[in-house]
Amino acid sequence: MKVIAIANQKGGVGKTTTSVNLGAALAELGKSVIVMDMDPQANSTSALDFTPGDHPSVYQHLMDRNSHIGELLLDTKYENLHLIPCDMDLAGCEIELAKEDDHLVRLRELIQEYKQTDPADYLLMDCPPSLGVVMTSSLAAADELLVPLQCEYFGMEGLSKIVDVHRQICESGANPDVRLEGIVMTMADHRTNLSTLVINDVRSVFPDITYQTVVPRNIRLGEAPSYGQSILEYDPTCAGAVAYRNLAKEFLERRTPQEVH
Q1: Do the beta carbons of residue 233 and residue 223 sit within 8 Å?
Q2: Average pLDDT rounded to a whole number, residues 133-148
């Protein structure tokens, strides 16, 4: 199982949208996927049609060393797609977990133990929009980092920060092997020159890791979570659904043959 942190310390860039819809698209292609909600706002949990707080969350397992994270797994209504839910209690980790000497590696240890059971092909962690303990712990637990980046210049400023955090996690020894796997351009408005300029600038700096698939600004992507649906169910032919299906295919094309098959 590959663990992919979907992270950007800037809010509103499409982390949850990407976690849920990339997960759904990979599941549609036959991959077993777990979406792990690591954001106290619990948007991935509600987007997959669960009510935050109705089920035990990752918070209890981070604070209880004797628990097993696999106990949290919920089956969604989509074949091959599962959820580890979250609720507002996780916000307490920013204070409580920070007091612990092993705060950077505790989540990693929980996930490493779970990985040994080979529960899925991919675990996608929807990280919070911050540079706090929960986000850095998620990076320390991941095999790879996937960065959704909004097509605007403030987004580019945020990119330098998440790249720097990635470097710090590697150099700290908490997770020297986590790889910056890719950058996904989101909320692109091709009617404007700005989106094109930002996409070109990012590709010029990160030519090998910027995805060719660009997720457009699409109102249907914003509507789907309010119905507890992925975009593939809510409007399977809209531009957002097409983009996430293409993103899932490109994601798999970038994998090693052994990992894909």
Answers
A1: no
A2: 93
Contacts 24+ apart (CB under 8 A), 157-160: 158/8, 158/9, 158/10, 158/13, 159/8, 159/183, 159/202
Query: Domain limits of the chain?
Result: 2-241
Superfamily of domain 2-241: P-loop containing nucleotide triphosphate hydrolases (3.40.50.300)
Class of residue 157 by CB neighbours under 10 A (exposed 0-12, middle 13-18, buried 19+): exposed
Quote the strand ranges of the chain, DSSP E: 2-6, 33-37, 74-75, 81-84, 122-126, 144-150, 179-188, 210-216
pLDDT, position 256: 67
Half-sphere exposure of residue 203, counting CA atoms within 13 Å on the CB side?
Answer: 13
Q: Return the structure tokens found at 165.
A: 């955090």
- What is the model's pTM? 0.94
Q: State the pLDDT at residue 65.
A: 65
Rounded Cα distance, 235 and 237, in Å: 6
SS3 131: coil
Q: Give residue-wise pLDDT tens across range 46-57.
A: 999 999 989 988
Is the model's pLDDT at 63 over the cut of 90? no
